[in-house]
Amino acid sequence: MSARPKGQAAFPTIIGIAAIVFGLDQASKFLVTQYIPEGGSWSIIPAFERLVKFTYITNTGAAFGLLPQLGDLFTVVAVVVIGGIIFFHQQFPTQNLWVRVSLGLLLGGVMGNFIDRIFRGYVVDFVDIGFWPIFNVADVSIVIGICILTYHLWDLDKTSG
């Protein structure tokens, strides 16, 4: 029988996943800003450029470029989310691995975009799949983290009620 992480015991998993996401996000943004001019595009496989390419843009709004006029609000929201996860993670059912993964994805993604806002004044976006607003690794991490957490909290509520 294996031990189940609860409270502080779950924190290393959350921080580890957050560190991986944050590192991937910041490394990818560094490479984009170094090798693609702002507004420029690059494709790994030119034949598939219409499907996916890297296009370097800046974004003061939320994920996927939503609400660009509210950049300062998103900075405050990021601080609240980061603090909330760090200080209240033990209030979540962290014995569930997927809840720990979701909190790590959220924390790493929010931190990645927060650092951009603080040091650049905007978020670097670059994944361009044509029919969708341009996004980055942090945005994907945040969306996946929210989906996983929502599902597991909803499932927990459904089974306990």
Q: Would you give an account of this structure?
A:
With 161 residues, this protein is mostly helical. The protein has one domain. 56% of the residues lie in helices and 9% in strands. α1 runs parallel beside α3 and α2 packs antiparallel against α3. The longest helix is centred in the N-terminal third of the chain and has 25 residues. The model has no long low-confidence stretch (mean pLDDT 89).
Features:
161 residues; mainly alpha; 3-stranded antiparallel beta sheet; 4 helices; 56% helix; globular
| Strand and helix order | HEEHHEH
Mean pLDDT: 89
Q: Measure the end-to-end span.
A: 28 Å
Structural class: mainly alpha
Strand order of the largest sheet: 1-2-3
Give the low-pLDDT segments: none
The coarse overall form would be globular
The total strand number stands at 3
**Could you give a short account of the major beta sheet?**
3 strands, antiparallel
Oligomer: single chain
Share of helix among residues? 55-70%
Strand content: 5-15%
Number of domains: 1
Helix count equals 4
Whole-angstrom Rg = 17 Å
SSE topology:
Layout: H1 11-35, E1 41-42, E2 53-59, H2 71-88, H3 97-119, E3 123-128, H4 137-160
Antiparallel strand pairs: 1-2, 2-3
Helix pairs in contact: 1-3, 2-3, 3-4
